Amino acid sequence: MAEPETRPDEISLRAAEVAADVTEAERPQDRQRLAAAFARAASSGVRVAGRGTRAVQRQMGAARRGAGSGTNWLAAHVMTMAPRLRVRNHTALRQQFPGRSADQIADALIEGASRASAAAGGAVGVWAALPALPAFPAEVAAETLVLVGIEIKLIAELHEAYGTPAPGNVAERMSAYVAAWAHRRGVYMIPGGVVLATGSPLARLLRRRLAARAGRSALSLGPLLTGAAAGAYLNSRETRRLGQDMRRDLRRKALPGS
Description:
The protein has ten helices and no strands. The protein is mainly alpha-helical. It has one domain. It is globular and about 45 Å long.
């Protein structure tokens, strides 16, 4: 009997859960435990035919040849995942970081997210039955989706830390944060609204950003230790850079003339 296929909504839900859990883990051993758990889950159902350089080159070549289809898949799942991310609001952040300024809270959030990205970068995936993709290897798609979840959660919480949350209901706010992730700017900087209509300039930008993120995720498929180390380092650096850029942008809005 064939195993039931993982539903798209289940994929997005599990990615959102893992992104939040790894980000909010306070101790290194907790992050390592979570990363190891979803690595084991992936290894039970996702197989890679070889871990050497040639195998990675084949995987990345296939991703480049079909990048359009792969990024469409990723973009659709990012939009489904975003409203399910667990985001701490301004009050919750103040309670978790009592006595700290907005800048200090932002620093803590960026540090936590960068460590979460490093932990995710050393793992191969999140779930056991990821449907076959038209372009990206399953491990790359899984890792990319979780990493983007970590970064969108960071963006949302930085907006909360500075008291400038996006307007609207949950779906509208999270769509705005997806757009902020694509633009690398705070929500107030996004031109033309946050509608991610197919074929819109913003939708195209989102797909380009996802293609670049997936390319970095592919490095973790390299030889066991070097691949994991490269993935952890690059993911951590990219998340930290994004958080610092967002922090500067939001700080200028919160403190005009700074």
